[in-house]
Design goal:
Blueprint lengths: L1 H13 L2 E5 L2 E5 L3 E3 H7 L7 E4 L8 E3 L4 E3 L6 E6 L7 E5 L2 E5 L3 E3 H8 L9 E8 L8 E3 L4 E3 L4 E9 L2
Parallel strand pairs: 1-7, 8-14
Antiparallel strand pairs: 1-2, 3-6, 4-5, 4-7, 8-9, 10-13, 11-12, 11-14
């Protein structure tokens, strides 16, 4: 009887996957877990942002509530949370020069002002804005007046001004 109980406990343990949430160990019985389930399991406030720690040189991944993470991959998945308001200053590379930025998004006009100290909004000057190394939602592309994109650290912007005379 005792041997059967030990075997049953061992079997149950084999079907658990391990994960770490804010430096605490947890077990999960399924291969996949959503961001919402991680928040619930780790008692993380719904308003907090959730991240999956990724080995360097790659950046940690922001996990939305409906994002599924595969826990059966090699290693133990490590999650951590940050209050939503806790957005650190990041560096944007604008025309090859580092620029500090403290917001989650940037507009066409804001990036043009970072690129050119003498930004002029008029009919004769057109700014061409392209970007690379952006977050998953907008990894690369171009911007036109009125556009706004999400940013991440070391995102690269190239901005040129053309005079239509």
């Amino acid at each position: 009887m005792e041997k059967d109980l030990k075997n049953q406990n061992q079997k149950n343990e084999e079907h658990h996957l391990h994960l770490i949430i804010n430096e605490k160990n947890y077990k999960w019985e399924h291969q996949f877990i959503t961001g919402a389930q991680v928040k619930q399991l780790g008692n993380i406030p719904q308003s907090d942002k959730l991240f999956l720690a990724i080995k360097r040189p790659w950046e940690d991944e922001l996990i939305s509530d409906d994002t599924e993470v595969d826990l059966a991959r090699p290693g133990i998945e490590k999650f951590y949370s940050k209050p939503k308001d806790d957005f650190e200053s990041i560096i944007l590379v604008v025309n090859g020069r580092p620029k500090n930025w403290t917001e989650r998004k940037i507009t066409y006009e804001q990036i043009a002002k970072l690129a050119f100290d003498n930004y002029i909004e008029n009919e004769t000057t057109v700014y061409t804005v392209t970007y690379t190394n952006g977050p998953k939602q907008n990894e690369e592309g171009s911007m036109v007046k009125g556009d706004k994109v999400l940013v991440k650290n070391k995102m690269v912007f190239n901005v040129t001004a053309t005079n239509r005379s």
